[in-house]
């Protein structure tokens, strides 16, 4: 399984609102060249909530095609309806993804036994590795640590993206996980510390804009090089904050547009970055040595 900096890739759009597949290819090449270790396609940052099921499959398949085996592709395939999550997982499997990222069901607020049944159904819908995604700040539902460890006994549930930012929880999972179960950060500000504790990488928003720095920083942290990781992370601290100054992925898309890689457009209900947001992202990029 993948270790390192895994970008939660934005989905670029044309002015018409259609997916911009030329820009998507540029982004994939950008990450391969920068040393990114993996791509999550149509996750939260990829605006999966506003893509149709057909678009989901098309974007995943195109990302796999453009990656051409140079970098692994993890497909976001979650839903708050278990049947739909299984259908999306099956479609992502057919599209050629290397693994599945499956978010905790949102809005319904299922109990922990419901989460266990949900994720076991998703895992049964594919022969690919499945990574759980716990982001209670968005979903309200929180996958309890004990639930994660129970699900880790399922053969193809191989890891978790922990976006809680709670390093005590990460330490518990790292201390009690079965052999081979991966723990990834989903929170850029605490990703370095999680990896220094023994974590396996970061599924990152910041990597959209600073892929090389993120790859180098996460590599250093996984290797236990605290001084090296801290020096790199110091350059990135402003970006970790600025890219969430307004709802993700609005700031990242604006920065990538300034870099000439794509248009800044999001789909409604997300809107354009404000002038104050632009100033914050511009300053953070300057701090990180990224030219806009």
Description:
- Helix content is 47%, strand content 13%.
- The chain has an eight-stranded parallel beta barrel, surrounded by six helices.
- The chain is globular and about 45 Å long.
- Helix 1 packs across helix 2 (53-67) and helix 9 (211-222) runs antiparallel to helix 10 (226-242).
- It has a single domain (4-225), classed as Aldolase class I (TIM Barrel, Alpha-Beta Barrel), CATH 3.20.20.70.
- With 292 residues, the protein is of the alpha/beta class.
- It contains twelve helices and eight strands.
- The two termini are 34 Å apart.
- The model has no long low-confidence stretch (mean pLDDT 98).
Task: Walk me through the topology.
Layout: E1 4-8, H1 21-34, E2 38-41, H2 53-67, E3 73-76, H3 82-94, E4 99-103, H4 112-124, E5 130-134, H5 136-139, H6 145-151, E6 157-162, H7 167-176, E7 182-185, H8 188-196, E8 201-204, H9 211-222, H10 226-242, H11 250-258, H12 275-288
Parallel strand pairs: 1-2, 1-8, 2-3, 3-4, 4-5, 5-6, 6-7, 7-8
Helix pairs in contact: 1-2, 2-3, 3-4, 8-9, 8-10, 9-10, 10-12, 11-12
The N- to C-terminal Cα distance equals: 34 Å
Give the second-level CATH assignment, the architecture: Alpha-Beta Barrel
Mean pLDDT: 98
CATH topology: TIM Barrel
Biggest sheet details: 8 strands, parallel, barrel
Supply the helix-strand structural class: alpha/beta
> Could you spell the SSE succession in H and E letters?
EHEHEHEHEHHEHEHEHHHH
CATH superfamily: Aldolase class I
Gist of the model:
This protein has 292 residues and is an alpha/beta fold. The chain contains twelve helices and eight strands. It has a single domain (4-225), classed as Aldolase class I (TIM Barrel).
